[in-house]
């Protein structure tokens, strides 16, 4: 299938839209343009705090839209004219830690809670932690993460994903009950959080959307990649753009608490301005 796909690319020279921008990946885009008509259209991120902003969805369809699809024939292949949908509100993709079944009222209450908490924190003081909605972390990793955040002594906002194993969930619940200086939430609007003036660092799995959102908000990263393009993205963050640092896992594949604390202090300490 992939062979046929690339053969067709050679034949038709398709136009490809890429969620990046020239200043970020100039060399890569230049090489790609030798073979494809590539257009950098990024950063495609929702503006923080603009939940009522009108946005264009390239894929969203409702019953009314189906009536407007007009089948045609071109070269024996049935195609359709798909209308771009203008919708109010909902973001293009679920924010980190989001569960699709959550009711709007529940999200509204959560948003008010963590935004009020952020508003009470000093500027650039909060460590925001989220590892996306795919990877699952062990009890040991969660314990080390909490230990590292406590060592930092900085306020933190941690967005946990659904489906954590029982032991890992208990670790976070105990950390929350013990008071301290952190807040654990089941869901948050990530672009809105990153654009808040209280946020000074983003501990991330370095998924592409999260990386772009951090760049757009000017928030330095502590990268903790584990799979797919995350490793490449972490390299881009640390080595190419120098807008963050990658945490090193130990021999067991765990990011130790001391290592997390070290990385956070590097990007939020005396030299933090160089990361912004």
TrEMBL record:
Gene3D superfamilies in the cross-refs: Glycogen Phosphorylase B
Start and end residues of each stretch annotated as Disordered: 85-104
CDD domains per the UniProt record, alphabetical: GT1_Gtf-like (cd03784)
SUPFAM superfamilies, sorted: UDP-Glycosyltransferase/glycogen phosphorylase (SSF53756)
Protein name: UDP-glycosyltransferases domain-containing protein
InterPro entries: UDP_glucos_trans, UDP_glycos_trans_CS
Keyword annotations from UniProtKB, A to Z: Glycosyltransferase, Transferase
């Amino acid at each position: 299938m992939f062979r046929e796909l690339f053969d067709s690319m050679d034949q038709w020279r398709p136009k490809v839209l890429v969620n990046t921008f020239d200043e970020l990946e100039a060399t890569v885009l230049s090489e790609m343009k030798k073979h494809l008509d590539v257009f950098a259209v990024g950063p495609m991120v929702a503006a923080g705090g603009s939940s009522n902003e009108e946005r264009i969805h390239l894929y969203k369809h409702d019953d009314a839209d189906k009536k407007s699809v007009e089948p045609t024939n071109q070269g024996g292949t049935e195609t359709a004219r798909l209308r771009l949908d203008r919708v109010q509100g909902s973001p293009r993709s679920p924010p980190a830690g989001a569960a699709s079944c959550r009711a709007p009222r529940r999200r509204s209450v959560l948003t008010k809670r963590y935004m009020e908490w952020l508003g009470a924190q000093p500027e650039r003081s909060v460590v925001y932690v989220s590892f996306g909605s795919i990877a699952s972390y062990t009890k040991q990793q969660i314990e080390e993460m909490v230990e590292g955040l406590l060592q930092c002594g900085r306020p933190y906002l941690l967005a946990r994903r659904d489906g954590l194993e029982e032991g890992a969930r208990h670790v976070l619940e105990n950390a929350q009950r013990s008071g301290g200086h952190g807040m654990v939430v089941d869901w948050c609007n990530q672009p809105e959080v990153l654009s808040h003036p209280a946020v000074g660092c983003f501990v991330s799995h370095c998924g592409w959307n999260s990386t772009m959102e951090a760049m757009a908000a000017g928030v330095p990263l502590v990268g903790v990649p584990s799979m797919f393009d995350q490793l490449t993205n972490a390299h881009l963050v640390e080595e190419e753009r120098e807008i963050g640092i990658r945490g090193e896992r130990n021999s067991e594949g765990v990011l130790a608490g001391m290592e997390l604390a070290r990385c956070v202090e590097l990007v939020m300490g005396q030299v933090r301005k160089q990361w912004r």
